Structure formats: C-alpha cells, structure tokens
Amino acid sequence: MLTELPSAATEMRLYATDRSGQRARRLALRSAVKLTLALAVSTVLAIAMPAPVAAHTGLESSQPSDGQVVDEPVARISLTFNRPVEPAGDGFTVSEGQGPRYLPDSLSSADGQVWRLHFDTPLGNGVYEVWWRVAAEDGHIVEGTFGFTVDAPQAAPPTEAPPDSTAESTAESSDGTVAPADVAEDSPAETLGAGTVETGLSAPVTTLRAGDGTPSAATTTPSELAASGATTPADSGASSGSDPSRRARSDSGATGVERIADALRILSLLATLAVVGGLAFASFIVRDEPSERTRVHRVLFVSGIVLAASAVASVLTQAVVFEDDWGALASADAITDALAAPFGIAVGLRVLGGLMVLALALLDAADTSRIRHRSLGLIGAALVIVSYSFDGHTVTEGPRLLHAAANATHVSAAAVWSGGLVLLADLLRRRRGSTDVIGPLSRFSQLAAAALVLAGVAGTVMAVLVMDRFADLWSTGWGRLLIAKVALVAVAVVLGARNRWVHMPALAHSPDEHAQSHAHQRLHRAVSIETAILVCVGVVTAFLVGASAL
Length: 550
Fold this sequence. Notes:
Blueprint: H1 8-48, E1 59-63, E2 69-70, E3 74-81, E4 86-96, E5 101-102, E6 106-108, E7 114-123, E8 126-135, E9 141-150, H2 165-169, H3 180-185, E10 189-192, E11 195-198, E12 205-206, E13 219-220, H4 222-227, H5 244-250, H6 257-285, H7 290-323, H8 332-340, H9 342-365, H10 374-387, H11 400-430, H12 438-466, H13 472-475, H14 477-508, H15 513-546
Parallel strand pairs: 2-9
Antiparallel strand pairs: 1-3, 3-7, 4-5, 4-8, 6-7, 8-9, 10-11, 12-13
Helix pairs in contact: 1-12, 6-7, 6-10, 6-11, 6-15, 7-8, 7-9, 9-10, 11-12, 11-15, 12-14, 14-15
C-alpha cells in the first residue's frame, strides 16, 4: 500500500503544476475581460456618437449648378466638396460638346473644400461640361462631372459702313505685296469656342485654355494632343453620343495602374496576416517546439520582405494614380505629394515594421534555443497594425480614435486567426498520422475562438462608422464587397466549428491506427479548405480597403 502512495516530491510537482495552470487561466481570463470591456465601451461610443452627416468625400454643390442655364458669360466656376481635397492630375477641365477640353487659367482655394476655376476670358454661349478629379484625405481618387449652359443675349450687329475708296486704293503697295489685312483673311486658323486650333496635319496644334486665344507655354503635335485627352477638330464629332464617363476612362494616361495598386494592396495585407499570425503562432501554439519556431521564422522572413517591398512600390503606384500619368514614376514632386498624405505615414510604418520582423527572423535564426528578440518582432507587428489607421476609410469616417482602435483590433484578431490557420495546416500536413497534433490543435482552437469574437465586434463597429445608411450594403460597391466578405467568413466559421466539435474529438479518441489516420486526413482536408477561404477573405478585404464607400 505504501508503494502506491505518491511521494512528497511528486505531490509538490503536481501542486506546482496545478498552481501554474490556475495562474495562467486567471491571467487569460483577466485579459479576455479587459478586451471585452474595451470593445463594449467602443461599441457604446460608436452608437452614442453621431456619424458625420456626409460620411464620404464628394461634390456637394457647384456654381453654376448641374443643368443650370446661365444668361451671361461665365468667368468663374466654383465647386464645393464636403471635405478637403486636392486636385489630382489635371484636376479640373471644361469641355464644350465633343470639342477640346479647356484648362482654367488659374485655381484658388482657401480651405481645400471650395475650389474656384478662373477664366481670363469668360466662357461664351454654349453647352459646357466640367470634369473634376480630386484626391480625398484617405488617398482615394474621386471624380465626376456636371454640366451647364451659357445662353447670353446676343448684341445687335453693328451697322455696315460704306466702303472706303481710300482704303481700297491703299490695300496694295506699290511693289505689289499684299497688306497684312489680306493675310489675316487667308489664315488657316479656325476659331473653336474661345480658343484657336491650327488646322493642317503638318502644323503644330496648341493646347488651349478656356476662353483664351493664347496658346499654352508648350505646343504639341496632333498625336500628343490626342494622348493628353483633348480632341482635334477632325475628331470632335467622332464620339458623338458616347458615355462621358466611359470616354473619361479611355482618356486615362495611366491605364492599368489601378490593377497594379490592387495587387500590391493584396500582397501587403496577406503579408500583414502572415506576420501577425506567425508571431502569435510561435508565441502561443508552438512555443515549446524550437523546430516549429524555426519554420515560423522562415515565414516571417519572407513576409517581412514582401511587406516592406510592397509598401515602397505602393508609393510609386499612388503617385501615378494621383497624377494619372506614368511619368509620375520619375517625378520627385509626384512621389512627395503621395507621401505627404496620411498614406505616407502608413507606408513608413509598414516599411519599418516589415524590416523589424525581418531582423527578428535573422537574429533568431542564429540561436533557436530561446526567443531573445521577441520584443523586436512584437514592436514591428504593432507598427504594421497601427499603419492601417492611416490608410483607407479610417482616415475620414467617424470618430478618428474610435475607428483607429476598432481597426487595430480587427486587423490583429483577423491576422491571428487566418495567419495562424495557414501555419496550422502546414503542421498537420507534416505530422500526418500522428497524435502529437492534439496539443497545438487545442491551443489554436481556443485562440481562434477569441480572435473571431474580437474581429466580429470590431468589424461591426467599423461598418457602422463607414456606412451612412443600412441600404449602403447593397447600393454601393463597398457594401457589396462587405457582404461577400461576411459570407466567406460565415463559411469559414462553420468549418472551424465542425473541426472543433467533430474532427478533433474523432482524432483524439481514435480506437486504432487506421481510424486515427482516417480522422487526421479528414481534419487536414477541412483545415485546408478553411485556410483557402480565409485567404479569399484577405483578398476581398484588400479590395474593400481600396473601394469607395459612395
């Protein structure tokens, strides 16, 4: 009987293990309570604080207004936006019918919300369309058009004077040369609206400013004029009846740059998920397995490079989008303008965070016995998470601090779930047919459940801040993307719940090796499908960040 009793040393070890487990559970419970309270307070504040009346950047009014008929020549056009904006590319142009686009002689704005277009020579009778293209505070390009008509009373024609015999007799000099008056009558120039375009393919064609017969500083050939978006007299009637918005897109000087920007945004977001999820996986799921941490550090190494490189490349694409010209790639002013916005802060934080994570992977590769540089990686991940508070709708929609806190919580929780799940799927693939996956599976299941709750609550707060009304969910492109994201997440949640309550117990209680192998195979397949769905969620989220909420 004495041999069956545990020794004092064994009892002490069991007691210490139990005490340490209780302390860990208490700390986890306290952290969960604090996070829940913080999110609850954020949700209450989101409901209590009214969102701005005009939640999205756009044109509020104009003078002349859209469709207005003006009875006098127009020397100034004013556009009032609901938020400060900056002209992007040409910014503001005016066209008369299908003729050339006119540039204003000067622009003025005191606060960035009201912009005035000044014309030295007023716009005469005709039907005009104003094209505007501006950059919002969050870096999104917003564009649109409106039109008005000038119908000023015509002055009575002057009474025709009798011919002057003296002038006729002096029209030709004694040496037979033609007087300047006759040269003007034979000039090949034609008057178009308020400006002049020289005809003839061999002659240079000048870019015009509205209401001004004076050519701009530089002259262009007809092909260069067409490339700039203007039209020559021969082309003025070619696109009659075309959709103006379609014509504006076809006139873009930087075709394809938006697709490149979308691709870079996807790479950046997926790298963010890998960085944050990888650090969480190494810290909580495989913290006692040096070989697994080494594999995670390889993922962090690649992710840090991708994150920093995509952030730098996004500056160049942002400059091209802003100027609507591929020449902005070599323009220091265009790149500086792109960095001057809050977007520049986001880029800087992502580059610095990516480099810190890269340094963590390199330093820990030399010594995998213990984690000496964990704080370096955590600070880098924190910088990357905070960067999303300076990019997208967080900059402009709702109370800034509340939206930034909700955004940081959402990004962190989503990354822990999706990034960690990718690493878990790889672990299951390598440990096929083994039961030593039960521990990592159990720990990740608890972590993913908490991350799901946090991501859901924070995402709901963000959606409330961005949307003006519930109908925006199906009436805007941003809302439809959000619905697609929520649907994909719902499928992933169902798969995760099935893994937790069906596949994991089946693997843990397999009666023999054959049943264990079969349960492991089903679990790995389900986790892989869930991983693929969450990667799709990441891609949709990247488009969601770049989509206009109008």
